[in-house]
Amino acid sequence: MNVIATAIDKVEELIGHSPHPAMTDVPIGAWTVSNVSDVMGMMTGDTAYDDSARISMGVGLVGAAGAVVTGIRDYSYIPRDRQPNHEIATRHALGNAVVGTLFAASYYLRACDEAAGQRTGLAARLLGLAGGGLMLYTAWLGGKLVEELGEAVKPVMEREEQQERQLKAGRQRAVPAGSA
Prior knowledge:
Blueprint: H1 3-15, H2 20-23, H3 25-44, H4 48-76, H5 85-115, H6 122-148, H7 154-174
Helix pairs in contact: 3-4, 3-6, 4-5, 5-6
């Protein structure tokens, strides 16, 4: 087992559940601040909001790295045949890949504008706002996975695994002898 997986397992033991939902708070919060700052910057013309949007976006990108690592780990534990959970988790992951890409592209454009001594351009703002809009949907999908379907909630997952084992054992007993 690698060092990262071991560290995630230790954190999970400590807090009693997957660390992924807590890790997502950093990018969600930072990117929300970035979007609010962009709107305020467009409304007021105050360049301090450009700085706030860029800095909070960078914080969100760094925080997203931890969310990605823990999310991939959680995703790897969802069996492909457990539907709709696996399908929803796939949409959540792919959507978040797009969210991260939108924010990374926006951050790059902002850094270029800053280096050129210019205000944040419209394209950078629109990319960030698009990322924020999509983030609302992907966060909802993540909440659905945990709150409604119980993914990554240890007692729920252990119960699911036990039921799956019992079903498999029951099917094996139901096969008449000599018919295999």
